[in-house]
Each structure stands twice: as structure tokens, then as C-alpha cells.
Amino acid sequence: KAGVTQTPRYLIKTRGQQVTLSCSPISGHRSVSWYQQTPGQGLQFLFEYFSETQRNKGNFPGRFSGRQFSNSRSEMNVSTLELGDSALYLCASSLGPRENIQYFGAGTRLSVL
Amino acid sequence: AQKVTQAQTEISVVEKEDVTLDCVYETRDTTYYLFWYKQPPSGELVFLIRRNSFDEQNEISGRYSWNFQKSTSSFNFTITASQVVDSAVYFCALSDTGRRALTFGSGTRLQVQP
After folding, report:
1. CA-to-CA separations, A19 to A11, A34, A72, A79, B84, in angstroms, rounded
2. Residue A7 clears pLDDT 90, i.e. is over it
3. A33 to each of A46, A104, A105, A111, how far by Cα in Å?
4. Is B100 on the interface with A (CB under 8 A)?
5. Are B20 and B74 spatial neighbours (Cβ–Cβ below 8 Å)?
6. How many CB atoms lie within 10 A of CB A32?
7. How far away is chain B from the Cα of A104, in angstroms, using its nearest Cα?
8. Which chain A residue lies closest to B93 (C-alpha atoms)?
9. Exposed e or buried b for every residue in B88-103, given b needs 16+ CB within 10 A?
């Protein structure tokens, strides 16, 4: 069974641009969560989606948004990029609301110049 | 608010040594889950174990063992006879039953020297 797939693996953007990251969950998993990992703040929860609806949201500004499609694939978008948005963005999937073991992808490393 | 503390930033051992990674947590919830994940240089977080707050039984899986003590709010992880392949960053995490959002500790970087 294929794991969580995140694309692209690496991205370089400049300040002010926007970016979209993609995540394909493990087949059969319906819940997708996103996390940001930085050296200074560590791993922080961004948001969670289930059945195309955002179920939980972390403490991030509105520039960070996401969505989930009917096939459970998810995208996250960051608008008006800032230097501090440089991070590893990790996507995790789980079976659904009653299962909380999250399986992570390899992440997208975003560099904002 | 939930909090996870991993006081050991970095540990270096020689192969075949035993090593224990400490994890202390804070939560007001009576029902919660604790996790350990491994992050190798590739970046992917690899799930190792989940424990719920009602199950204080220690667990052993091969060279890995976990000690959960509610009285001290700790969930420590021991690797017996460490190997070079164990070199990675290890994260302890906490979630309550209502949300699946994980609260992570800052991680412990383990370096196993040959």
C-alpha cells in the first residue's frame, strides 16, 4: 500500500508570492492533517480535514488555508509569503474520526527568499 | 493547554549501548493519547507507538520499550542495544480524544556512533 504522498518535495518562492502544496493520503484514509516544522517553533498543527470539511484549525494566520477533495486528496495554500514561512510542511492521513494514528508523508520543503 | 517536554536535545551513544529518551507531558484532559514518532534524515515522521491514558501497561517491541507512568506524567522510550540505523530525531506527542491534532515535543536527536 502506498504511503502519504506529498508534492512537490522542494519549492523555492519569493516574498509576496503564493504557493500550493499537495497531499495524497493513504488509500482508504479519509482524514488529512497538515503540520509546519521549523527549527524555532518545532512541529505545529495547521489544520485537519475530513469529508471535505475543516474540522480543526491551529493558531496560524488566515494566509494559511486548505481544502480537501472528494477523493480525500488535500491541498494547502499560503498566500503573501513571508520569510518566516520557510519550513518543512508535513501532511498526515488517518482512517477517519475514530482513528487517531496519523501517518506522515515526507513533506514539502518550502524556502522563501 | 497541552504541553510536551523533551528535555534532552541531543544524545550520543556508541552502538550496542542502551538509551532512554524522556518525555513529560501536561494536559487537563482525563482521556488522552500519547505517541512516539521517529524522523530520519529523509524527513518523514514514522509512527512507532500509541498509548491511551487508561493503559499504563509497559510495552516492548523488539529492541524498543516504552514506560508510561501517569503518576509522573511521563512516557519514556528505551532502545536496547542501539544500532546506527536508530540515528534520528525522536518526537513524543500528545492528543486528546476530541481532537486529532498532535502536540509535539521539541524532539531528541539521537546519534548512534559505530
Report:
1. 9, 15, 20, 7, 37
2. yes
3. 7, 9, 11, 21
4. yes
5. no
6. 29
7. 5
8. A43
9. bbbbbbbbbeeebbbb
Task: Report the distance separating Cα A10 and Cα B25, nearest Å.
Answer: 33
The type of residue at A15 is R
Tell me: the pLDDT tens digits for A44-90?
999 999 999 999 999 999 999 999 999 999 999 999 999 999 999 99
Alpha-carbon distance of A53 to A77, in angstroms, equals 15
Taking Cα atoms as reference points, which of A14, A41, A68, A45 lies closest to residue B100?
A45
- Give the start-end residues of each E strand in B27-100: 32-39, 46-52, 59-61, 64-69, 74-79, 88-96
Residue type, A47: F
**Structure confidence at residue B111 as a pLDDT band (50, 70, 90):** very high
Residue A72: closest CA among A51, A95, A97: A51
How close, in Å, is residue B99 to chain A by CA atoms? 7
Chain B residues in contact with A23 by the CB 8 A cut-off are: none
Chain A residues in contact with B107 by the CB 8 A cut-off are: 42-43
B39-71 b/e (C-beta count within 10 Å ≥ 16 → b): beeebbbeebbbbebeeeeeeeeeebbbebeee
Residue position matching grid coordinates 488517518: A94
Per-residue pLDDT tens over the stretch B15-65: 999 999 999 999 999 899 999 999 999 889 999 999 999 988 888 899 999
